[in-house]
Amino acid sequence: MGKIWVSTVCLMVLITSSISAKENRYFALYLEGSRCGYAVQKREVMGGKVISSEKTYLELSRMGTPMKLTVAETAIESPSGQPLGFQLEQDMSVMKMTIEGHIRPDGIMEIETTNAGNTVKTESVYPQGALMSEGLEILCKKYGLEQGTAYSVDVFSPSLMRAVKTTFNVGKREEVDLLGRVVELVEITGDFIFPGTGKTSYTTYVDSDYMPQKMITPMAGMNIEMIACAEEFAKSELEAKEMISGMILKSPEKIHDVNSARAIKYTLKPKTPNVQLQFPNTDNQQAVVLDDGCVSLIVKPVTGDPEAIFPYNGSDSEINKALDNTPFLQAAHPEIISLAKESVGGKRNALEAAKAIEAFVGTYIDSKDLSVGYASALEVARSRQGDCTEHAVLTAALCRAAGIPARVVLGVAYVDAFIDSGHCFGGHAWTQAYIGDKWIGLDAIFKGTGLGGYDAGHIAFVISNGEPGDFFGMAGSLGDFSIEKIETEF
Question: How far apart, in whole angstroms, are the C-alpha atoms of residue 467 and residue 160?
Fold first, then answer.
């Protein structure tokens, strides 16, 4: 799940550029002490518009498989900080995507997304009041650097395609080590907040001119650091950092025959005092916050109504959204429609059709590897390669093309062994399909690798539409808690 790291770093780059957008600034990127990438920022004024760009480059490794990931964002604003448009180019190792957005005076975003040679045009409402680079710089300078100053603002990220509520708390001046240089800087702390999916903290250090010099944020149990440096150092030889270790949660015990479990009750304990854990309540899992701050979470998979028909013809607007054609779930594309027909065959009810799609995707993706950062459903349909996320998005898109509402779920799933860990939970993605009046779980990669499919060993963090920003919510949950107790019901 390289998308998690790239999404996080892009948001960090955006915040640092927003605090002081200057020309040609370079940052070295570290993951748990390994220098695995760099970021560069540039600001220009052209034709009465302020154009701020940030490019992020990362080299990561997933169980020995190298990944090179690049994201370039551009914010277009008026000199007063009014958002006018944005651009995004990203290469997620196999998947290449471009997005161009124009913000009309009426607040509507006209968005054109292109990947796998397919272009999707959409419109949506720009988050009211959300700022980009220039606007946030103006706001930060307005508040100043006096200790104790606190404020918050919504920041729009093209990489995440959403606004992220961001808080700022100005701290004291202190001496900070910058790659051997000790400089007195002002500490600013805050949080990136996603409604319903928790928050992630950050700490940044700026000088008296608002020039950011260092930024640190925890992600999936690991620390990501950005440190201002010279171009030559930023672009010098990098060390690809192994990222899978941050996606593993140790289980307190081995779960015997997890596929046969009727339900599993988990007791989850926050690693940081006074941090409230958040998990979605769905047809398959229910979470209750206990008095001591722990969470009692019961995962009890539902089977779905065998009499339900498809395509879905209900009037529920939320359910109908799970049929939408989107830039990552291209349910209306002829290639996806053709695969959906092939996978469903002559199945007459929705449950059989969804299960047939799950099994089809499990074998259709014949190169199950970790070389893909994050691909859309159409790209997966063409490349036939990827890991759990690629299986999840293709399953969701095929279900939608067949008229079955579907969505992507991000969380962790239990396995008896993973890398060097025994009985653990690994970062995972799967699919939910709406059958009758219930959302049922589908796990194509588990089905295709002999692990059975969706079961009570799956803990959901985020219910997703397959959009990049949803991965940030998942990353914020990983590393926040430990699994203290497991009670299995057969």
Answer: 8
CB-based contacts of 379, cutoff 8 Å, min separation 6: 94, 95, 115, 116
Which of 76, 71, 58 lies closest to 21, judged by CA? 76
What is the predicted pLDDT for the residue at 239? 86
Structural domains of the chain, with CATH: 2-242 (no CATH), 258-489 (3.10.620.30)
CA proximity to 463, closest of 387, 406, 413: 406
CA distances from 28 to 9, 23, 52, 246, 358 (A): 11, 16, 19, 21, 42
Q: Which candidate, 430, 389, 363, 408, places its Cα nearest to that of 62?
A: 389
Residues belonging to the chain: 490
Cα dihedral: 347, 348, 354, 355 (round 10): -50
Q: What is the DSSP letter of 373?
A: S
Stated pTM of the model: 0.83
Span 160-170, pLDDT tens digits: 788 889 999 99
The DSSP code for 451 is S
